[in-house]
Amino acid sequence: MNFDFTTEDRALFEAVRQAAAGREGLPELLPALAYTGYLNPELSGTTLMGAMEALASLDPALFLGVEMSARLLGRALARWGSPAQRARWGAPLAQGTWIGALALSEQGMNVDNEPLATQARREGDGVRLEGAKSYVVNAPVADWIGVVGRLEDRPALFMVARDAPGLTVEAALRTLGTDGLPIAGLTLAAVRLPAAQVVLLTDDHLEVLRLWENQVLIAAALGMQAAALAQARDYAKAHRTGGRPIIAYQEVGFKLAEMLTLHQTSQLYAYRAAWAADRNAKEAQGLTWCAKVFCTEAAERVAGEALRILGGAGYQSGGAAEQAYRSAKYPQIAGTSTEIARVKIGDEALGYLN
Ligand SMILES: Cc1cc2nc3c(=O)[nH]c(=O)nc-3n(C[C@H](O)[C@H](O)[C@H](O)COP(=O)(O)OP(=O)(O)OC[C@H]3O[C@@H](n4cnc5c(N)ncnc54)[C@H](O)[C@@H]3O)c2cc1C
Q: Which is it for strands 167-169 and 126-137: parallel, antiparallel or unpaired?
């Protein structure tokens, strides 16, 4: 196993940081990132994990918006789309000229528990789509939404344009964290699409999409940890009380040591899981569930400890640690939830998934 980054990897991470610096919205950020190669759907393994971590540590909310646009939808099109579909949607997503969304979860249920109810029937030369989706990142701002459902007996991804008759995107939800990230439910009532807007999926699509989504959420957790740790470390060196910088108090130093340990262990877990997934290793899913549980729960702990070091300054809105603390629930809940991941890890350990 080798999770080392190459010189090219490190150059990409630096280019991503520079492209993102000072850019506040997806329309401005996506083309700048495209220029670095970050939006390439073929990017994978530790290179992808390291690059995602670099962006997530700058702004976790914007990072998630980018990933749900170009990464998840872009990778789905690259894997399952025809050459014409990849040219029509994959290319503009990778160039950052369109904003995308992937609508998977449905109302009041988790895709791990029940089959998807969103269904299409063939009608003339096209299909007629009915269904509802919840918690769709980017839905209020997306040019195209990839809706996962079934076309009669086949799983399919339906490419629905923002202005498609029958598509209703609800108002953006008010959420605990990830400030500025638009998330909304949507309904599809007799949405008619030409056959060219249907991407046929393989039976393993949910497993694959969840793996990619979990990788994104792991990277978000790494970014939150890095941002909270950096703010607390800098503050501990600069802020003085009792005639000395607070880092001179042993308990503050212990906290920073604990946070650093959690962060570095999270990084190792994330890189190992990404490395295994890139090689289609048998243990890739299991490692990714373990990394998701560890990294996302560590993000909440690291951010919480950062706030304690920051004292009153941390309790004020606007800091990286405060934002990370409020946002850390997101990667625990979304994707494979930490509860479901634990059940799956247990099943795997008992040999039920082999
Ligand atoms: C901020 C945010 C952004 C999201 N973005 C997207 C997106 O862009 N696209 C998209 O398609 N989806 C998205 N999701 C949806 C997400 O992936 C989950 O499917 C969704 O959060 C599940 O929510 P629920 O209320 O239906 O949970 P429920 O399924 O009702 O779960 C409630 C509780 O029960 C537990 N539980 C449920 N089933 C089991 C089980 N089998 N074993 C053990 N415990 C279980 C859960 O872990 C949780 O603790 C997002 C969710 C959030 C919160």
A: unpaired
